[in-house]
């Protein structure tokens, strides 16, 4: 049985169906992300008879439309909103909502003599050869009168050419656009899978986009929840946009939802700036204990997971759960405390965290344990360890959605503390620390999660930069200090080593002050370590400020440098890397066990 039907609709009929809500757009007020060039290209494609992609619609039970009606036989637009909005702007002359949430007109100009489209500028408004706003032509009550005025303004123009091209322009209103109507009886999981697989303008769609469309169908409440997610994510990155929301979305600004995120106007951290798909994933875990976004959509559609049938009475309670989860996610106290927790274990910069999924799950776990009333000290211990374990084992990569659901289920069955102990026993055995982790550190990627955890461990342990007496790793990270080759790269190349595969091993990296890095330059380790040892004897500074042998030994230890490094010779390089990987792994282990 076919899962969809394909039909064609003229542009004017399509816009009429949207206006009458035969095709329902869940949220016409979401910011228009296309620029005017894309609108121009869309009109040019329609003018030349080129395909412009398909719209995708689906009938959904319980969708609330403008005015409070519930969708019956209407088709809900789940992909194609940007194209519809572009047509409304260029053909109907209606305003769009910008990223700053301001209403704005996008005008497209057309030259009937050269058949060119352009974004309208003052030049096009002054030049009589151009129709400065094609929506005026499309909405003219007298096309013949419009042509007559053009002839009068351009008396030397070839009349046959511009009249032919004006007819061709008018034909855009009759241009056919394909509509893929998904079958009404498809279950949510299938619709979500179809949605994800279809590409729009070459951009892969995501299940989160589908979820956002579904959320927005639930009347004013759904539209506000969708805006709550959108605005929360936007303000987390651009706090100054608070004034744009106040000025341009009065309805939302006067709602209870706005007051829940207004605090972001003073937010200046970038450790965790979740995107809308992250928020939906966390909400799925917190509200429904579901890891798959498609499962969240199923809940919001009234899908009974046991009978796999749709029950309309389940929809409102599902939105209650979603709203309650979102309120916890965006709560200032909870969000800031969680970010502080992440920073407290050494992750002081956003680029130290290369797994957003690990952060998402840790935040969901933090919110869940807080809701259960667990003592804050025990909650924090569990969340910190879980987050570090996730980064070290890649637990939330790959098929992470199934893992998330499994983890939440096991936490419900045996408790978070007991389940964490089980994971530690199976994933972080002695073999992991002494064999697997050193092997994982055999990489040239400075963005490796294992190297990032090592740096976090150094921050947590208040370690100083390599050969630095006063400047710690935290300060170097926060002020973009240098990653130094412990054995200088040029020295290795000079001695026959590969400048990338050999020299750029993370076991050859250490953070240090720029001045120390410059002072070392390309000197062999034995040479620059001799300078350090000399100043430890006579106190005359030559490299850095360490003048005490005990300080030097402590510095090498906190940077996981072998104690006999001063005796290094070039033939020992591979042995040095192996020894340092083992020391880095041991350093990380002490860090983890101390969390």
What does this protein look like?
The chain is of the alpha+beta class and 595 residues long. It has three domains: 4-182, no CATH class; 218-425, no CATH class; 438-593, no CATH class. It has a five-stranded mixed β-sheet, with helices on both faces. The chain has a two-stranded antiparallel sheet with strand order 5-6. Residues 199-204 have low confidence and may be disordered.
Secondary structure class reads alpha+beta
What number of domains?
Answer: 3
Beta-strand level of the residues, as a percent range? 5-15%
Whole-Å distance between the termini? 56 Å
Across the major sheet, the strand order is 1-9-3-4-2
**Average pLDDT figure:** 89
SS summary, helix count: 29
Helical fraction equals 40-55%
Main β sheet profile: 5 strands, mixed
Unreliable sequence segments: 199-204
Cα-atom Rg, whole angstroms? Answer: 31 Å
What's the total count of β strands?
A: 13
From the spread of the alpha carbons, the general shape counts as: globular
Outline of this structure?
Helices cover 53% and strands 8% of the residues.
Keywords, separated by commas or semicolons:
595 residues; alpha+beta; 3 domains; 5-stranded mixed beta sheet; two-stranded antiparallel ribbon; 29 helices; 13 strands; 8% strand
Question: How is the topology of this model organized?
Answer:
Elements: E1 4-10, H1 11-20, E2 23-24, H2 36-47, E3 55-58, E4 75-79, H3 81-90, E5 96-97, E6 103-104, E7 108-111, E8 116-119, H4 122-126, H5 134-138, H6 143-153, H7 159-170, E9 176-182, H8 188-197, E10 199-200, E11 203-204, H9 207-216, H10 219-237, H11 242-248, H12 250-253, H13 256-261, H14 276-288, H15 293-300, H16 315-329, H17 332-344, H18 356-371, H19 376-393, H20 400-414, H21 416-427, H22 430-440, H23 449-460, H24 473-478, E12 482-485, H25 489-494, E13 509-512, H26 514-520, H27 525-538, H28 549-558, H29 573-593
Parallel strand pairs: 2-4, 3-9
Antiparallel strand pairs: 1-9, 3-4, 5-6, 7-8, 10-11, 12-13
């Amino acid at each position: 049985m076919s899962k969809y039907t394909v039909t064609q609709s003229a542009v004017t009929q399509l816009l009429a169906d949207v206006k009458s809500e035969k095709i329902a757009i869940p949220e016409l007020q979401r910011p228009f992300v296309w620029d005017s060039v894309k609108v121009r290209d869309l009109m040019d494609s329609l003018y030349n008879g080129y395909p412009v992609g398909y719209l995708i619609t689906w009938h959904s039970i319980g969708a609330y439309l403008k005015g409070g009606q519930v969708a019956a036989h209407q088709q809900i637009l789940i992909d194609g909103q940007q194209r519809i909005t572009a047509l409304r702007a260029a053909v109907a002359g209606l305003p769009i909502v910008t990223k700053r949430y301001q209403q704005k007109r996008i005008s497209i100009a057309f030259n009937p003599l050269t058949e060119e489209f352009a974004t309208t500028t003052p030049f096009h408004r002054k030049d009589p050869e151009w129709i400065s706003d094609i929506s005026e032509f499309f909405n003219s009550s007298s096309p013949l009168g419009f042509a007559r005025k053009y002839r009068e303004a351009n008396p030397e123009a070839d009349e046959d050419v511009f009249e032919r091209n004006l007819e061709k322009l008018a034909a855009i209103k009759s241009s056919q656009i394909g509509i893929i109507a998904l079958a009404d009886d498809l279950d949510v999981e299938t619709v979500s899978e179809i949605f994800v697989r279809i590409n729009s303008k070459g951009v892969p769609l995501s299940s989160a986009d589908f979820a956002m469309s579904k959320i927005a169908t639930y009347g004013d409440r759904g539209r506000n929840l969708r805006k709550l997610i959108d605005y929360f994510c936007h303000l987390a990155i651009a706090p100054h946009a608070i004034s744009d929301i106040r000025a341009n979305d009065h309805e939302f600004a006067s709602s209870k939802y706005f007051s829940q995120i207004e605090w972001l106007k003073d937010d200046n951290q970038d450790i965790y700036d979740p995107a809308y798909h992250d928020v939906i994933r966390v909400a799925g875990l917190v509200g429904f204990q579901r890891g798959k976004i498609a499962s969240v959509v199923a809940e919001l559609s009234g899908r009974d997971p046991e009978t796999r049938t749709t029950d309309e009475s389940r929809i409102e309670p599902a939105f209650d759960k979603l709203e309650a989860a979102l309120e916890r996610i965006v709560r200032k106290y909870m969000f800031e405390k969680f970010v502080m927790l992440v920073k407290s274990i050494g992750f002081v910069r956003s680029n130290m965290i290369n797994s957003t999924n690990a952060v998402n799950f840790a935040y969901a776990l933090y919110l869940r344990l807080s809701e259960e009333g667990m003592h804050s000290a025990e909650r924090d211990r569990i969340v910190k360890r879980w987050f570090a374990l996730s980064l070290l084992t890649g637990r939330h990569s790959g098929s992470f959605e199934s893992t998330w659901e499994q983890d939440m289920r096991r936490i419900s069955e045996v408790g978070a503390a007991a389940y964490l102990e089980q994971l530690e026993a199976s994933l972080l055995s002695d073999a992991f620390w002494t064999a697997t982790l050193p092997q994982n550190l055999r990489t040239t990627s400075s963005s490796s999660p294992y190297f990032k955890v090592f740096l976090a461990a150094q921050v947590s342990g208040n370690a100083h930069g390599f050969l630095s007496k006063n400047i710690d790793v935290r300060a170097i990270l926060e002020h973009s200090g240098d990653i130094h080759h412990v054995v200088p790269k040029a020295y290795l190349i000079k001695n026959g080593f590969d400048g990338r595969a050999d020299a750029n091993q993370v076991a050859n990296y250490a953070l240090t002050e720029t001045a120390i890095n410059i002072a070392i330059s390309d000197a062999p380790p034995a040479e620059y370590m001799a300078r350090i040892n000399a100043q430890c004897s006579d106190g005359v500074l030559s490299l850095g400020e360490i003048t005490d042998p005990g300080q030097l030994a402590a510095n090498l230890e906190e940077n996981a440098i072998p104690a006999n490094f001063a005796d290094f010779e070039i033939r020992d390089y591979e042995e040095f890397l192996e020894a340092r990987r083992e020391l880095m792994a041991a350093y990380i282990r002490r860090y983890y066990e101390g969390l």
